[in-house]
Amino acid sequence: MPDTVSAAEASVSGSLDGDYDDAAGYYTPGAPLVDTKAPDAPIAERWQTRKFEARLVNPANRRKLSIIIVGTGLAGASAAATLGEAGYRVKSFCYQDSPRRAHSIAAQGGINAAKNYKEDGDSVHRLFYDTVKGGDYRSRESNVYRLAEVSTNIIDQCVAQGVPFAREYGGLLDNRSFGGVQVSRTFYARGQTGQQLLIGAYQALERQVAAGTVETYTRHEMLELITVDDGTGQERARGIVARDMVTGEVQTHVADVVVLASGGYGNVFYLSTNAMGCNVTAAWRAHRKGAYMANPCYTQIHPTCIPVSGSHQSKLTLMSESLRNDGRIWVPKNQADCDKDPRDIPEEDRDYYLERIYPSFGNLVPRDIASRAAKNVCDEGRGVGPEVDGVRRGVYLDFSAAIERLGEKGITEKYDNLFDMYERITGENPFEVPMRIYPAVHYVMGGLWVDYDLQSTIPGLFVTGEANFSDHGANRLGASALMQGLADGYFVLPHTIRDYLADGPFEEITEDHPAVVEARESVKARIDHFLSVNGTRSVDSYHRELGNIMWEYCGMERTETGLKKAIDLIRSLKDDFYRNVKVLGGAETLNQSLEKAGRVADFFELGELMCIDALNRRESCGGHFRGESQTEDGEALRHDDEFAYVAAWEWAGEDSIPVLHKEDLTYTAIEMKQRSYK
Amino acid sequence: MNLTLKIWRQPDASSAGAMHTYQLADVSPDMSFLEMLDVLNEQLNEQGEEPIAFDSDCREGICGMCGLMINGDAHGPEVTTTCQLHMRSFKNGETITVEPWRSDAFPVIKDLVVDRSAFDRIIQQGGYISVNTGSAPEAHSVPVPRDDALRAFNVATCIGCGACVAACPNGSASLFMGAKITHLGELPQGQPERDSRVVNMVAQHDHEGFGGCTNIGACTAACPKEIPLDVISQLNKDLRTSIKHGH
Ligand SMILES: Cc1cc2nc3c(=O)[nH]c(=O)nc-3n(C[C@H](O)[C@H](O)[C@H](O)COP(=O)(O)OP(=O)(O)OC[C@H]3O[C@@H](n4cnc5c(N)ncnc54)[C@H](O)[C@@H]3O)c2cc1C
Ligand code: SF4
Ligand code: FES
Fold first, then answer.
1. CATH of the domain at B105
2. Per-residue pLDDT reduced to its tens digit, B224-233
3. How far apart are CA A257 and CA A362, in angstroms?
C-alpha cells in the first residue's frame, strides 16, 4: 500500500458517478492509519489476550504515577474511581460545581448489556452484531466486540454500588427493548437511568477522594493540552492548562498521562439535547496539538424530542425513545387534517408511517431511520403542531392504545417523570392529547481517534466515552452510550493505561518547562484577546448563527452544494467573531461570557471540519445522509467499496487545510450487509 | 408579557451585594425562567452592563445545577427546578425578586451563583457502598424485593440542588442527607456500612455549618424531586441504631 494516496488516484478507483472527490481542495491526503494494538487473535479472544499482554505496574510504583482525567461523566468518573482505587494519583477535572452534574446525568432510557436474562436469544455476539449493524458498518469491530463482552460486568458493578435498577416482583432485574433491536436487553431506572448510573460512579469517586487517591478540581475548565518532547523527538501528553472559573487563575497541571473524558460536541448546533456547557474545547485543543479527529460529521439526530417552540429557545428536550415501545407514531394522511384536534381524526385517516414502511421493526426502527422518516412526512406538508417558519415540524407520539392497555398508573410506573416533563414544557397533558415530537441533535459518534487501547495519536493521551470515536460507527443504537462510557472507565482503560504507565517513571516536568510556559501563555493570550475585542455582538448570537448554518447544511441531510456554502459561511462568521465579539467583565472573576467565547471559538473550527468530513464522505450511512447517495425509495445508500474507512483528520496549522488519514475497516467476524429494517 | 425584575448582584464572595432593578419586555409564557434570564442578559450585554451570573447546565431538571430564590421561594412558585419553571407561572406586569440560595454553608460566589461543594464533602464521608471495580458478584445473586428497589429509587432521585437547605429556616441539609441514607439503607448492598455511614455523614453535615432539623418541613415542600419528610425520620432512626451498636 502506498504511503499516501493522491486525490487523483483515489478518484480513479471509485465506482461512483460523476466527479468523485467533492472535497478536493479542502484537504490534503495523508498516510493510511492503522490500529496496532488489537491483538491478532480470533475476535472473542482479543480482549483477554490484550489484557494478558498489557504490562503490570506494581502497587508500590503506582503511587508514584500520576493521571489527569478531564471529565466526570460516566466515562471520567468511573475511570477516576477505578484508577484511584488501583493506587495511582489521580486529578479529576470538571467545569460544573460538582462531578455529579456531568451531562451523563441526563440520560433517560437505559443501558444495554448482554445478560440474556430473558432467554430471548441474546448473547455477546448478538449485541456485538446489532451494534455493528446499527452503526452501519462504520465502527471498529474489535472495539465493539469488547464492549459487548464487558457489558455484563457493568450491570454487576452498578448493582453492587446500589444503583436501583427496575426490578420484577421476584426481585430480579427487569429489562426493556430499545430502538433497532428485537431482544430485551436494556436495564433501566425509570426514565432516569443516566442519573442513577452517574450517581453510582460519582459515589465511587467521592469514596476515593476521601481515601486520598483522587483530588477533584470542580469549576475548572481545561483550555490547553501540554505536550512535551520525551527526548527522542516524540511529543507526549504531560498535562493540561486549566482555568479556575471562580478566581480566573490560569493553572498548569502536569502528570504522567492525560485522559480526556470530556463528552460530545453536539452543541456546535447550538440547539441540541446536550447540557448547556457541553463543548469540544478539551478535544479540540488536543486536536490542534496532534490528536486526530475521526469522523466528525457523524451526528446522531434523535427522533423523539419536544419540537422547537420559539426563537428564545436555549436547548431541546429529549423524550426517551423507550417511549417508542408503547407509543405509536403517526401523522394525518391528508394535509387538510393537520391543524385538527388529533382526537377528531379517525383511525382510517391516520398514517402510522413507520409501521407501514418498516413492518418488522415498526416504531422501533433505529434512530437515523425514524428521524429521517419524520423529516420526510413534515417536508411533505403533513407535520403537526404550530407552524415555525412556515412549516409544521412535529409528528404525533400517541399513547392512547397503551393507556387503554396499561392504565394511567401502568404508564406512570413505566415512564415516570417523562409525561410530567412533557406537560411542564409544552403546557399539554399527554394523557389527553398525543405528544408531539420532532428530531433534534443528540449525540456525536465522531471524536478523537483512538487505538484499541483508547490511546490517541499523541502518546500518553487517552480518550474515553463520547469524546472518542470508536464504538458506534455512523449511528448509535439507544442505550449503548452509557454502556460505552462505563465500559471504558471501569473495565478497559484501567488495563490499557497500565501498559503505558509501565514505561514509567517518567521525566519530571516542572512548571517552568518551556512547553508548559508556552501552553500557559497561549491560554492567557486567548483570554486577553476575547476581553479586548470590545465589539458589538454577544457570544450567544454568534453561537446561534453558527448553529443555524450547521443544522441547515450539515444536519439531517447534506449535499455537496450545501456543505460548500456552509464552509464559506462559517469562515466569514468566524472572521467576524474574532473582530466583533463583545465579552464584558474581567479575566479574574467568574465570567460566563468569557467561558462561552472560548468554546464558541473552538466550535467554529470544528464546524468547518465537520462540513469538510461530510463533503468527503459521498455516501449515506447512519446519521450521515448525503442527498446524492440514496436508493430509489429514498433510503440511505452506502458505498462500502469506497468509504469503508474511518476518516481521521490531522490539524495542519492555522492557515492550512487539514490532512485526511484513512483507517480501513475490515470485518472478520461479521459480514458487511446493506442495512435493512423492513 | 412585561416584567420588573429585582435581582441580587454581588461581584464576588468578599464584596457586598445589592438588589438591582431591570425591566424586561416581550417575555413569552413558553420561556423557561432561565431563558428569560438569558434574554435579559443579552439586553444587558448590549447596553454594556455585565450579564448576571447564574448556574445551569442540563436545563432538564435533572443535573441539579440551577437554583434561585424566586419571590422568596426556592426554585419559585411551582414544585420543580428553576430550569423547568416556565413564565406561564407569572403574570404580565409582575415584579419578580430573584436571589441566590440562602445558607451560611453555601457562600455566594458571584451574583446568583453559590458554592455547594459541602454536599460533595458529606457524600465523601460515607454516601457510597464500598465495592472495588471488578469484584462485584453476579447481579442476580442478590434479589432485591421490588418494593425495596422502588423505594430506594424514589429517594435516590435527589439531584443535590440544595433547595431544601435554602428553604429551611435552620439551613439544615437533613433532607438531602436522609435521601442518601434511605437510598442505600433500603438495599441489601448498603447494609454493612449502614451504621458508620449515618454517623460520619451527620458529623460532616454539622462540621460544614448546616443547621439542625426541627421538623418544619419547608425542605420537602420546596424539593423538586418530592423527597418525602420521612427520610429524615429514617436518618434519625439509623442514627439511634448506630449508637445502640456502639458507634
Ligand atoms: C438527554 C439525553 C439522553 C440520553 N439518554 C441516553 C440513554 O438512555 N442511554 C444511553 O446509552 N445514552 C444516552 N445518552 C447519551 C449519553 O448520555 C452520553 O453520550 C454519555 O453520558 C456521555 O458520557 P461521557 O462520560 O462521555 O461525557 P459527559 O457525561 O458529557 O461528561 C463530560 C465531562 O467532561 C467535563 N468537561 C467537558 N469539557 C471540559 C473542559 N474543557 N474542562 C473540564 N471539564 C470538561 C464535564 O464537566 C463533564 O464532567 C443521552 C444523552 C442525552 C443528551
Ligand atoms: S432533597 Fe430535594 S431539594 Fe434537597 S437537594 Fe435533594 S432534590 Fe434538592
Ligand atoms: S439546569 Fe439542570 S436541573 Fe436545572
1. 3.10.20.30
2. 999 999 999 9
3. 47
With beta carbons less than 8 A apart as the criterion, state whether A657 and A27 touch. Answer: yes
For residue A505, whether the previous peptide bond is cis, meaning omega lies within 30 degrees of 0, is: yes
Taking CB atoms and an 8 Å limit, are B137 and A160 in contact across chains? Answer: yes
Atom 3 (ligand 3) nearest CA: B61
Write out chain A residues lying below 8 Å of B28, CB-based: 310, 312
Q: How distant is the alpha carbon of residue B158 from its chain centre?
A: 8
The reply to whether B135 falls in a domain is no
Question: Nearest 5 degrees, angle CA A582-CA A588-CA A589?
Answer: 80
Regarding whether B203 and B178 lie in a shared domain, the answer is yes
Spatial distance between the Cα atoms of B155 and B14, rounded to a whole number of angstroms: 36
Report CB contact under 8 Å: B137, A156: yes
Same domain, residue pair B122 and B233: yes
pTM for the predicted model, two decimal places: 0.95
- Domains assigned to chain A: 301-442 (3.90.700.10), 514-645 (1.20.58.100)
Of A97, A317, A593, Cβ closest to residue B55: A97
The pLDDT value given to residue A18? 53
Annotation marks residue A367 as catalytic: yes
Residue range A140-164, pLDDT digits in tens: 999 999 999 999 999 999 999 999 9
Start-end of H helices in A235-337 = 281-288
Q: How far apart are CA B81 and CA B65, in angstroms?
A: 9
- The three cell numbers of residue A120 are 430471548
Q: What is the ipTM of this complex?
A: 0.98
Domain hosting residue B219, numbered range: 115-130+141-245
Q: Is residue B44 part of a domain?
A: yes
